[in-house]
Amino acid sequence: MPRTIWSGAISFGLVTVPIQVVGATEDHSIRFHQYHLADQGRVRYRKVCELEDREVPQDEIGKGYELTKTQIIPITDEDLSSLPLPTAKAIEIDAFVPLASVDPIRIAEGYYLQPAGQVAAKPYKLLVQALGRSAKVAVAKYAWSGRERLGLLRVRDDVLVLHAMRWPDEIRDPTELLPPPVEVTEEEIEGALALMDTMTREDLEGEEFQDRYTEAVARIIEAKRESKPLPQAPEPEEPAQVLDLMAALSQSVQKAKASRSQEAGPAEVHELPKPKKSAAKKQPTTKAAAKKTAAGKKTAKKTAKKTTGRQPRSA
Question: Which of 6, 76, 128, 311 has the largest CB neighbor count within 10 A?
Answer without folding.
Answer: 128
